What does this fold into?
Amino acid sequence: MRRSQTYNDETDHAEWLARCTGCGIRRRNPMPDYCQLCGSPLEVELDYREDLHPERLFDGCITDLWKYEDLYPVSLRHSVDLGLGEGGTPLVRISKATQQIGVEEAWCKSEHLNPSGSFKDRSAAVGVAWARERGYPGVICASSGNAAGATATYAARAGLPAYVVISSRAPKSKLAVAVAHGARVFSVAGDFSRAFAAAREAAAEVGLANVTTTYVNCYAYEGNKSVAYELYEQMEVVPEWVVVPVGSGPLLYGVWKGFRELHRFGLIDRIPRLLAVQPEGCAPIARAFASGEEVKPWSRVDTVVSGIDDPLQGYERDGTLTLVAVRESGGAALAVPDAEILRAGRVLAHEEGMFVEPAAAASVAGAAAAKRSGYIDGSGAVVCLLTGHGLKYQGARDQVELETVRDEVELVGAIEKDLGKDA
Ligand SMILES: *Cc1c(COP(=O)(O)O)cnc(C)c1O
Ligand SMILES: [Zn+2]
It folds into this structure.
């Protein structure tokens, strides 16, 4: 096994300690869940050996997220039989959308190009790898759509049964991926928090690995650190801001954790500020940031932006941890109206060639809002994470309006008129 080359043989790194982010208690390899004492999220503590040689690991060459497998809590090589090329996503400089934001330099990390169409592949790949190593008979997750697809994808590769619990609010179009990969999908009435509670309960009862992409599985969300590693390799300087659409926040936290590790390795001298973006109709973390109070659950979800519409009912500590990362990075958390999010999505699609779902476009809308309110000052690079593909989002299909032509003559006429109109 690879670990003997890199790690102290006494510390099997699938056995790395998990530390409670609330009460600080450390436990060796607990079941994925919140702290049994205080209910806070757990966090994996990496145990590096001197001979990890980060400067060799980070050689500027992007492949996929398994390039950094020595930094995840798994022991075996999973790239060979689990990997589909997840991670290693393009970083694209944007211009039109940059003008909209009002900054000099903005980039989009195309997370929507991951194998199942969202960044959730990062945590699902590592989470399923971990579950397989630990001998779990199957995986379960609650999802608003993208995590379901990602979990089903890697479960199929791993030969593990996948069970998905969705909120009755989730757009069914997003579930096509999970169904295609053979996952069993169950719908629970209510919002995401209800589906989450049901999946958590079932995982404990049946002994399945809960790979839900809240903070409930501290092994899985380690996969999100790879976004930071890749940005470090793809950019000449550390970006000023990384803008992240946030549900409960493990993506944002993972990015922060990844940059902190790079800092600890001595590879960077500062950590980017993190901007958490939520829709106005469900913004428990942005509300707490603005008021300076604790994160409290959101009572009435009212947004079309699925994927970041998590009211945190029953696990508001997830939001507290996300806010720690936001504050310690010197960042901010903002709420943006649906209309601005949808408009940013149109600009990305029409003028930048990137078709992403509204939750992803929220990063660009959020960056613009942060510029207007003075958090982002406009100098230094801003990176927006485009978290999910537009193809899966139902709203995109409902809005398709087609023009009918009777024949070639009408077709030519219509095109000429369109070109003339623009000339
Ligand atoms: C899940 C999801 C998010 C939010 O990620 P969290 O880590 O839960 O905060 C953002 N965008 C899309 C498209 C998602 O599917
Ligand atoms: Zn605790």
Observations:
- The pocket of pyridoxal-5'-phosphate (ligand 1) is lined by residues 118, 120, 146, 213, 245-251, 307-308, 357, 359-360, 387-388 (CB under 6 Å).
- The two ends are 64 Å apart (CA to CA).
- The first strand starts at residue 17 and ends at 20.
